[in-house]
Design brief:
The protein is α/β, with parallel strands linked by helices. The protein folds into 2 domains: about 140 residues, Rossmann fold; about 60 residues, Arc Repressor Mutant, subunit A (Orthogonal Bundle). Helices cover about 55% and strands about 15% of the residues. The chain contains 10 helices and 6 strands. It has a 6-stranded parallel sheet with strand order 2-1-3-4-5-6, with helices on both faces.
């Protein structure tokens, strides 16, 4: 039986070296390429056509989500497994929407990573136990709570949309015909309702949720 060919994509060399050592030590797997950014990953996937790509999410200038979408488009027989620091189910959902077949976190065990590769190679989708546990916990908590996004007012949602476009508080105030202080209050309430710390985390939340 031919080994499963794998492309490693992560911007940390130590992680790539660790994955390569683990996988090449098992005759079922063969690492045929490495990339430290999404752009190179796309080009290598086009030419080498690996069966599996282990894809980090947080890279620049092309992140793992964008790279996954492009690889899925140009090399449909290549299956992407996200390997991320994020255990929130929303990240797994977003990667699946981009075309990924699997999702494991960097806290996952060596065995779980291998299980993910085997299952995805069979054509099955795979989500690691850490993400599943987080999802179950969220469902338990949400049974007695209204989802945070549903607690936002129409005006707060309008402010979010304008923030997503890159407008400042002053520009938002002018567009909505309200005072700067009113916009700042809306921004404060949005962060409080969504349990976010700052504007950067809000923008990240907006992008992941697809708001």
């Amino acid at each position: 039986m031919e080994p499963i060919t794998i492309l490693l994509v992560d911007d940390h060399r130590l992680i790539r070296d660790s994955w390569a050592f683990i996988l090449n030590s098992d005759p079922r797997f063969h690492v045929i390429g490495e990339a430290d950014n999404g752009t190179d990953a796309i080009e290598i996937a086009k030419t080498k056509k690996p069966r599996i790509v282990l894809m980090d999410i947080n890279m620049t200038p092309v992140n793992g989500m964008e790279a996954t979408r492009e690889i899925h488009k140009f090399s449909p027989d290549t299956a992407v497994i996200a390997v991320s620091m994020h255990s929130m189910p929303v990240y797994a959902k977003k990667m699946m929407q981009m075309g990924a077949m699997g999702y494991v976190t960097k806290n996952s065990s060596q065995q779980e990573l291998m299980n993910a590769i085997i299952e995805v190679n069979k054509g099955n989708k795979y989500v690691c136990s850490e993400v599943k546990d987080t999802l179950v916990q969220q469902q338990i908590e949400n049974e007695s709570e209204e989802p945070a996004i549903n607690s936002l007012s129409r005006r707060e949602l309008e402010v979010i949309q304008l923030l997503k476009k890159g407008l400042s508080s002053k520009e938002i105030a002018l567009q909505l015909g309200v005072t700067l202080k009113t916009v700042e209050v809306h921004r404060y309430n949005i962060l409080k309702k969504l349990k976010l710390k700052n504007t950067a985390s809000l923008i990240n939340f907006i992008n992941v949720q697809g708001l």
